[in-house]
Amino acid sequence: MVKDLSKINSVIGNYVAELRDINVQKDSLRFRKNMERIGELIAYEISKTLEYEEKEVETPLGTAAVNLIKDKIVCATILRAGLPFHQGLLNVFDHAENAFVTAYRKHSIGEDFEIAIEYVSSPVIQDKILLLCDPMLASGASMFLTYKALLEKGEAKHTHILSIVSSTQGIEYLRKKINPKKYTLWTAAIDSELTAKAYIVPGLGDAGDLAFGSKA
């Protein structure tokens, strides 16, 4: 299931517009903050899908019955671009466990490249809710390989894949690679064009460089 949040008018649209804007992008602090805020808002939407249980909380004047999240949550991201996005999830699900994966393009000859996974730090995810975020879903290969790497830590109860900008090709790639019943994709925008170098157009550029500076 694909949840395209651009189809619903909300403040998320303002944050996405600033992330795309070449003039606003000059402010890396604001770029990171906008990713973080989108993460918070998508996390709130996801919270509506979780399982809850009633508990009593003691107040200074008595007890109150409240519904609290029952599911155990793991927030995961792909280093480094996903860190601000991940922080937004953690701001909402502050009791969640966390996972971090390195996935990058390993170039060979010309424009050819493969996705390399070199580091995985994750708790057991068996029967937990996995929130896997990366700001850009381009070809879908990085997201799928990261998901596959995390499966070595157990089978999640359900996986929520989050991106800020997704390509139609990346969405279709995940649909072919992952059982649709096992995940939900949340995205703030969908762009139709993907270049030969697997860059999304119009996209927003290199999210990692814009957030943290260019690489040597």
What would you say this structure looks like, in words?
The longest helix has 20 residues, at 28-47. The strands form three sheets. Strands 1, 4, 5, 6, 7, 8, 9 and 10 form an eight-stranded mixed beta sheet that branches. A two-stranded antiparallel ribbon has the order 2-3. It has a two-stranded antiparallel ribbon with strand order 11-12. β9 (158-167), α5 and β10 form a beta-alpha-beta unit. The protein is globular. Helices cover 30% and strands 35% of the residues. It is built from six helices and twelve strands. The mean pLDDT is 94. The chain has 216 residues and is α/β, with parallel strands linked by helices.
Structural class: alpha/beta
Mind summarizing the main beta sheet? 8 strands, mixed
What separation lies between the terminal Cα atoms?
A: 38 Å
Order of helices and strands: EHHEEEHEEEEHEHEEEH
What fraction of residues sit in β-strands? 35-45%
Shape: globular
Helix content: 25-40%
- Which segments are poorly predicted (pLDDT under 50) over 5 or more consecutive residues? none
* Tally of separate helices: 6
Please give the number of β-strands.
Answer: 12
Secondary-structure blueprint:
Elements: E1 2-4, H1 12-20, H2 28-47, E2 52-59, E3 62-69, E4 73-79, H3 83-92, E5 97-107, E6 113-121, E7 129-133, E8 136-137, H4 141-150, E9 158-167, H5 168-177, E10 183-191, E11 193-194, E12 200-201, H6 207-212
